[in-house]
Design a protein that fits this description.
Belongs to the UDP-glycosyltransferase family. Keywords: Glycosyltransferase, Transferase. InterPro entries: UDP_glucos_trans. GO terms for molecular function: UDP-glycosyltransferase activity. By secondary structure, the protein is α/β, with parallel strands linked by helices. It folds into three domains: 107 residues; 90 residues, no CATH class; 126 residues, Glycogen Phosphorylase B (Rossmann fold). α15 links the parallel β12 and β13. The strands form four sheets. Strands 11-10-9-12-13 form a five-stranded parallel sheet, with helices on both faces. The chain is built from 15 helices and 13 strands. Helix content is 37%, strand content 15%.
């Protein structure tokens, strides 16, 4: 690993969520490839997940180091060891998780030259900014009532219930949402995992509101080697050779890849219906089931209905983490059934794969 002291040195502090950590480490590699020294703050359990990336950085002589920092679970009211957003046992604990993350950010201090990294689109950023700076929500009486977002290049409507929690005043009197917005104002610039050609009008309008905005995406394209694509984000739940052999055995653009991100939770009955739908498509498919959704009830149902026997030779189920960029970039993939998370959306676009979008499974 390079050690020259005259290199610029960036300190990166990510939100401990896969949707943020993965593009964050991609951004770190892009910076390091340009001779910049990088230090990433990470928690011990997340460091284990990203060990492959750390090892690859060392092997490639990139000046990237990870510094583990204890995550204040107990201080924020979280069970011990819940250091990643996909590990919290209930969506009701999301606020406590964000609070723990805020403790980390505030503990390190907001440096004068700090910038914010956004793992969301310029469209989303502009929507949030225009809602926040206007009084449009004051005239919305009910959560189910729709309203038009002001100052947008196109007509965009939402209901109050569809907005992120940060737009609702803190119900417990803590002022939590307000503190989050006040902290964000301190940033001196914004870095976005998007690109101008994808959303030119929304980037242009957002730049009118924020002085310094840099679109550096799609950051996933820095993973050019097969090993980088396979080890990205976590230890894959399938052997690399087995995965590639299965994909190589399919005709070009013949199979459906079904994956709903690291945070979407499905009941057993929902998962059974998804499986039946994939089977009824009469197409080869790769279906990713989150490890936390692989319940005894689900496995029992799949066994009773002999589901995996019925799809043998046509369907591949991966229980746990999948090498998404590797799969999407394979010529055999002809469609992507997705929850519309921003990372998945950009990765699908970069791979030129048509997407079947099901954004209702997770609030955006």
């Amino acid at each position: 690993m390079a050690t020259q002291s005259n290199y610029p040195h960036f300190l990166l502090v990510p939100l401990m969520s896969q949707s943020h950590l993965i593009p964050f480490t991609d951004m770190a590699k892009l910076l390091a490839l340009r001779g910049i020294a990088i230090t990433i703050i990470i928690t011990p359990l997340n460091a284990i997940r990203f060990k492959t990336i750390i090892d690859q950085a060392i092997h490639s002589n990139l000046n990237i180091q990870f510094i583990p920092l204890q995550f204040p679970c107990q201080q924020a009211g979280l069970p011990q060891g819940r250091e990643n957003m996909d590990s919290i046992p209930s969506p009701d604990l999301k606020k406590q998780f964000i609070l723990a993350s805020m403790f980390v950010f505030l503990g390190l201090g907001m440096l004068p030259s700090s910038s914010r990294f956004h793992g969301i689109s310029c469209f989303t950023l502009l929507c949030c900014k225009n809602i926040e700076r206007s009084d449009v929500l004051k005239s919305v009486a009910a959560d189910s009532e729709s309203f038009e977002v002001p100052g947008m290049p196109d007509k965009i409507e939402f209901t109050k219930a569809q907005l992120p929690p940060g737009f609702q005043p803190s119900s417990d009197g803590s002022g939590f949402a307000e503190k989050m917005r006040a902290t964000a104002i301190l940033a001196q610039g914004e870095v976005v995992n998007s690109f101008e050609e994808l959303e030119p009008d929304y980037l242009l309008e957002y730049k009118k509101l924020e002085n310094k905005v840099w679109c550096i995406g799609p950051v996933s394209l820095c993973n050019k080697e097969m090993s980088n694509k396979f080890g990205r984000g976590n230890k894959a739940s399938i052997d690399e050779n087995q995965c590639l052999k299965w994909l190589d055995s399919r005709k070009p653009k013949s199979l459906i890849y079904a994956c709903f991100g690291s945070l979407c939770h499905f009941s057993t009955s929902q998962l059974i219906e998804i499986g039946l739908g994939l089977e009824a498509s009469n197409r080869p498919f790769v279906w990713i089931i989150r490890q936390s959704d692989c319940s005894f009830e689900l496995e029992e149902r799949l066994l009773e209905e002999r589901y995996e026997e019925r799809i043998r030779g046509r369907g591949l189920i991966i229980r746990g983490w999948a090498p998404q960029v590797l799969i999407l970039s394979h010529p055999a993939v002809g469609g992507f059934l997705t929850h519309c998370g921003w990372n998945s959306t950009v990765e699908g676009i970069c791979s030129g794969v048509p997407m079947i979008t099901w954004q209702g499974v997770l609030p955006k």
